């Protein structure tokens, strides 16, 4: 999406006076989910059980895209480990279908990864033979990004640079 260079808007003008709410463990950054623990052991709740990056704040300005019917907003979330996460915030836009398609793409990526790693005969990846020469397998992957529907008509998407 194109971003209008002169569209930096002060976030506090849109949100009003910030109300600081104290959380023992602030929410995780939506577009950067914490890792899943294979053991399913997330502790007893007295310590930060996941160790993922959490929301520390937001940049004071945001941008409005030049494209899109409802002009999505680009905000920058600052994490508890000082990393910045650009996010596209959409309102009045159906993104639930996008989220489902992203899950389908992840499933396809898993299938392609599994197919390139195994062979039906001995478990080792085999290169296809064409004209008597072995060709190396290419690791194909669909680019995916996190999509979080917040309601039937709004949501937050992970910003992908250089797209």
TrEMBL record:
Under which name does UniProt file this protein? PI3K/PI4K catalytic domain-containing protein
Gene3D superfamilies found in the cross-reference section: Phosphatidylinositol 3-kinase Catalytic Subunit, Chain A, domain 4 (3.30.1010.10)
Q: Which domain of life is it from?
A: Eukaryota
Keyword flag Protein transport: no
User: Residue ranges of region Disordered?
Assistant: 28-51
Describe the location of the PI3K/PI4K catalytic domain by residue ranges.
Answer: 59-163
Write out the entry's keywords from A to Z.
Kinase, Transferase
